[in-house]
Amino acid sequence: MALGGMFRNAAAIYLHLVGPFRGKKSGASLARCLHQTLVMTKQLQARRLNGIDHNPWVEFVKLASEADVVNLGQGFPDFAPPDFAVEAFQHAVSGDFMLNQYTKAFGYPPLTKILASFFGKLLGQDMDPLKNVLVTVGAYGALFTAFQALVDEGDEVIIIEPFFDCYEPMTLMAGGRPVFVSLKLSPNQDRELDSSSNWQLDPTELASKFTSRTKALILNTPNNPLGKVFSRAELELVASLCQQHDVVCITDEVYQWLVYDGCQHVSIATLPGMWERTLTIGSAGKTFSATGWKVGWVLGPESLLKHLRTVHQNSIFHCPTQAQAAVAQSFEREQLHFGQPSSYFVQLPQAIQRCRDHMIQSLKSVGLRPVIPQGSYFLITDISEFKSKMPNLPGAADEPYDRRFVKWMIKNKGLMAIPVSIFYSVPHQKLFDHYIRFCFMKDESTLQAMDKKLQKWKDDLRP
Q: CATH no. for residue 108?
């Protein structure tokens, strides 16, 4: 359109809007007319957003930012990635100038090649970088792409509680129906600390959740928030049911290198008959302690991944090239050192287990009862004694106790955790509102700051 035509159209619109007020003195009336004309009256949000607009993380992070708080709630390291990973990123930024440009849509070729080689050995598969690997914007992006690609309107998705809190809204946004099954805590008779291994699936209950509408089961091992590492026997139960009912398994294994006390991580895709129906999700952020890089991946058979590629190519198209190049170089280094004392995947869990043990002892000192995690960044701790001693903490009458407790702890003790009830479906939240989650993937200075807060807490408890 010529500029003259544009101006004539604009003038006509202006006269249409202003005409009724020409000669009048009321600027307010003109403003009202313009407002009534321009404000939309249709419902703006898509129906798939109904009920998932509230995010508890925003609330608790905001509370923590308003006080002098040691943040043990959010799951990120507050220390540097390994030197080799940082150097790889620096090289990616300052080296080949073409790394500033687009790369292949489904992954930077050196990264898909090393992921296929590295994980192919672990999963027992001859993986094709072009067919069996998709690079995504973090594991979060991998999960979203998987749900959008595979879950249809009315499909059921089995979610094991406690669950990473994005699984439910991602299921709903895809049009699916979440079906929940809770891990059950076996009674501990000796009053020693519980272990995350004591939280187990009830085989009969799990089997009852499968129906003709079940499309997928989402598995998270090591589990966030519990730190449970699913045993081979538990995985065999899940695998048997997935095969019996022709169900896809989406397995979130971002903490696979962070296992403790000699535990072994087992990928369900390695079990007989499971590669063909499993998507295995990983994260460079968790693997190399660089969560801000937002590089994740999905591994699986071509029959499943081709549908994820369709979503990927019609949404983000591809991920930042330089971050992918840095991750590729980091994995190439780890492949050379794999299984040796020099491997980061050997050194990191040894260091973080010491952080875990430090936190466990510190929390016990104020009467909290941590559940010893087998893996991940996190542990949960039982606050039942506080619930019985301080039942009437401020908050809404229907607000789960753990959320009120965390707000009280932020305000009065200077410590931030995350209430475990947010990792449960609404009907089950009140059943598990006597636990809170701490992140121990922290620098020694952060743990020392925690100790100071806890020492003051102990002093307050003394008669």
A: 3.40.640.10
* The two structure tokens encoding residue 273: 């008959």
| Residue 319 and residue 445 in one domain | no
Asked whether residue 199 is assigned to any structural domain, the reply reads yes
Looking at the fold, whether 88 and 121 belong to one and the same domain comes out as yes
Cα torsion through 349, 363, 230, 136, rounded to 10? -60
pLDDT of 95 reads 92
- Spans of the chain below 50 pLDDT: 1, 3, 6-7, 10-11, 13-15, 17-18, 21
Same domain, 61 and 143: no
CATH code at position 69: 3.90.1150.10
Same domain, 212 and 267: yes
103-127 confidence digits (pLDDT tens):
999 999 999 999 999 999 999 999 9
Q: Say if 39 falls within a structural domain.
A: no
Residue 56 has a pLDDT of 78
Whether the bond between 272 and the residue before it is cis, its omega within 30 degrees of 0, is no
Give me the helix-helix angle, 401-413 and 444-461, nearest 10°. 100
Distances (CA, A) of 116 to 89, 112, 133, 337, 365: 21, 6, 7, 17, 46
Q: Are 60 and 71 in contact (CB under 8 A)?
A: no
Q: Do 350 and 232 belong together in one domain?
A: no
pLDDT value of position 461: 74
- The Cα 450–Cα 463 span in angstroms is 22
Residue 14's pLDDT is: 47
What is the pTM assigned to this prediction?
A: 0.90
Note whether 348 and 294 are same-domain residues: no
Are 111 and 324 in contact by the 8 Å Cβ rule? The answer is yes
Predicted local confidence at residue 36, as pLDDT? 59
The encoded tokens of residue 289 equal 């302690």
